[in-house]
C-alpha cells in the first residue's frame, strides 16, 4: 500500500476510478452519469482553485516576510510557480465544468440573472467568471514578473507583486459570496 501512496499519479487514478464507481452505482443512466461526472469535476477543480487561493492568502503571503532571504528562492523559484500552474488551470477548469453543468441542468440562462429562482446561481457564476478573469489576466501576468519568470527590474517586480496580491485579495473577498451562491442554489 505504501508504494501506491508514494505515486501521486496512481493515487489520482484510483481516486478517479472510485469516484466514477460511486457516480454509476446508485443512479446509472447516461444523463445522470454525465451530470455526476461534471458535478464531481466541477467540485474537484473548484477545491483545487479556491484551496490554492486560500493557501496563497492565508499561508504564503503572510509567511513570506518571516522567511530568511536565503530560503525565499525555494518558494519563489520552486513552490509558487507550480502552485500557480494548478491555481490558474484549476480556475479555468472550474469555470468550464461549471458552464457545462449549467447547460446539462438547463440553467445556462442563469447568467442573465432574469429568473428569480436561478438568480443566486447566476450571481455565483458571474463572480466565478470575474475571479477567473482576474487569475488569468491580472494575477498570472503580474506573478510572472514578480517571480522573475519574465524580465522585469526590481521596481517593476515590486509593483507587479503588489498588483497580484491585491487582486488575489479581491478574489478571496469574492470567493466568500461566490461559494455561498454556488452551494445554495437547489
From TrEMBL:
Question: Which parts of the chain span the membrane according to its record?
Answer: 7-28, 34-56, 85-105, 120-139
- Any one Pfam family match given in the protein's UniProt record, by short name: Urate_ox_N
Q: Any idea which UniProt keywords this protein has?
A: Membrane, Transmembrane, Transmembrane helix
**Domain (Urate oxidase N-terminal): residue spans on this chain:** 121-182
Name this polypeptide is given? Urate hydroxylase PuuD
**Organism (species):** Sphingomonas cremea
Read off the lineage from the record: Bacteria, Pseudomonadati, Pseudomonadota, Alphaproteobacteria, Sphingomonadales
Amino acid at each position: 500500500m505504501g508504494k501506491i501512496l508514494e505515486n501521486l499519479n496512481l493515487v489520482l487514478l484510483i481516486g478517479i476510478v472510485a469516484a466514477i464507481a460511486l457516480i454509476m452505482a446508485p443512479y446509472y443512466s447516461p444523463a445522470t452519469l454525465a451530470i455526476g461526472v461534471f458535478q464531481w469535476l466541477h467540485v474537484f477543480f473548484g477545491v483545487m482553485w479556491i484551496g490554492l487561493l486560500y493557501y496563497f492568502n492565508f499561508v504564503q503571503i503572510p509567511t513570506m516576510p518571516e522567511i530568511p532571504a536565503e530560503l525565499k528562492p525555494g518558494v519563489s523559484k520552486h513552490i509558487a510557480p507550480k502552485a500557480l500552474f494548478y491555481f490558474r488551470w484549476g480556475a479555468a477548469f472550474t469555470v468550464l465544468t461549471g458552464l457545462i453543468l449549467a447547460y446539462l441542468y438547463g440553467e445556462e440562462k442563469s447568467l442573465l440573472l432574469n429568473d428569480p429562482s436561478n438568480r443566486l446561481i447566476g450571481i455565483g457564476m458571474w463572480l466565478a467568471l470575474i475571479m477567473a478573469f482576474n487569475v488569468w489576466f491580472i494575477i498570472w501576468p503580474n506573478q510572472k514578473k514578480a517571480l522573475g519568470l519574465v524580465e522585469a527590474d526590481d521596481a517593476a517586480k515590486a509593483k507587479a507583486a503588489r498588483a497580484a496580491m491585491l487582486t488575489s485579495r479581491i478574489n478571496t473577498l469574492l470567493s466568500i459570496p461566490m461559494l455561498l451562491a454556488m452551494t445554495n442554489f437547489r
